[in-house]
Amino acid sequence: MQKGSCWNIWDLHVHTPHSALNNQYGDPSTEKTWKNYVTRLEQASLQYGVVAIGVTDYFTIEGYTRLLSYQRKGRLRNILLIPNIEFRIDKVIYREKDATNPKRLNLHVLLSPLISPDEIREHFLDDLDFVHEQEPFQAANTRKLKRSNLTAFGVTLQNQHEKFRGRDPFEIGCLNAVVSAEMIKQRLDIRFRGNYLLVLAEESLPLLDWDSQHHGIRKQLLQMSHAIFSSNDKTRAFCLGFNHPSPSEFIKEFKSLKPCLWGSDAHAYDERFLYPDENRFCWIKGDVTWEGLKQTLFEPSERVAIQETCPEATKSIFTLKGLTLPDTMIRNSLRIAPSNLSLNPNLVAIIGGRGAGKTALLDLIASCFPEGHKLPTIETSFIHRLYVEEPPPGEEPSQPISITLDLASGDIFTKHVGSDDTCFDTADIVYLTQNHFDEYSANPDKLNDHIIDLVFEHFTEEKRKLVSLKEALQANDRQLEEYNLQIEHLSDVVTQRKSQELDQLKVLQGSKADIEQRIAEIETTQGKQADEAKTLSEELDCLLSKDRAIASARNLLNQIKATIDTFLGQYSMSATLVNAGLTRVNETLEEGHIQLLPTELEELVIVQNTIDRDLDELSTETTKVEENLLKTRERIDELDGLDKLLAEHRQTLSDIQIQIEDTNERITETANNERRLSSLVDSCIRTFANAMSLTVELRAFLQSTIEKFRAGSPRALENILFDAVIDLKDYPAYLQNLALQLDNRVYSEADLEKILKPIVEKIVNNLNRSAAAEDFLADSLALYSSLKSLKTKKSVTVSDYGNAIFRRFFRVGIALEYNGKRMVDLSMGERAIILLKVLLALGDNPLLIDQPEEHLDNRFVFDDLAPAFREAKKKRQILIATHNANLVVNTDAEQVIIADNNAGVLSYTLGSLEDLDIRDAIKTILEGGDEAFRKREQRYGYIF
Question: Are 193 and 102 contacting, i.e. CB atoms less than 8 angstroms apart?
Answer without folding.
Answer: no
